[in-house]
Amino acid sequence: VRLAGKDPFGAGHIDRPQLGWQCEHELLANVFRMRQRFVEGEGRPEAIRALLMLSITSVLPCVRGILRVLGHPSKGKDVQILECLPHALQFDPTVLVEVLQMKRGLNSPGSLEWSKVYERYLQSVEGLLKQVQAVRQE
Q: For the chain, which terminus, N or C, has the lower number of CB atoms within 10 Å?
């Protein structure tokens, strides 16, 4: 939000190949952080919940960046952005949408199911990373 005066950031040029590389790098770092936090949290449900909430928060800007690199709309609500993934990357965003809904308090898997959600989510983010890597190599 600009209150007055010239926009200090302007409409600068964004190098698409560099943005794609950065998004790929961030997704890879996210996978490493998830694994590390799972071990640190000893697989406890409350630790898994916390790491999933942190992870989805950092995955969303990466998804927006990749969509931008591919020339797809990258603005809109988070769920709308995730729903662009099947068309843009041939990627099923179901698990990502579920975790986003959990973050917003719209649903919960129950305390005994967090480890299953973690496994599905980790596989999903790894799959997204592979799709991004494949697209970047084209």
A: N
- Tens of pLDDT, residue by residue over 89-100, are 999 999 999 999
Give the whole-angstrom CA distance, residue 18 versus residue 7: 24
**Residue 1: pLDDT over 70:** no
Rounded-to-integer distance, Cα 88 and Cα 63, Å: 10
pLDDT in tens, 5-49: 776 666 777 888 899 999 999 999 999 999 999 999 999 999 999
What CATH number does residue 48 fall under?
1.20.120
Q: Which of 134, 138, 118, 128 is nearest to 26 (CA)?
A: 128
Q: Which domain holds residue 45?
A: 16-137
Residue 6: CB atoms within 10 A of its CB come to: 7
The verdict on pTM exceeding 0.90 is no
Question: Residue holding tokens 């916390």?
Answer: 50
Contact assessment for residue 83 and residue 93, using Cβ atoms and an 8 Å cutoff: yes
* 9 assigned to some structural domain: no
What is the tally of structural domains in the chain? 1
73 in any annotated domain: yes
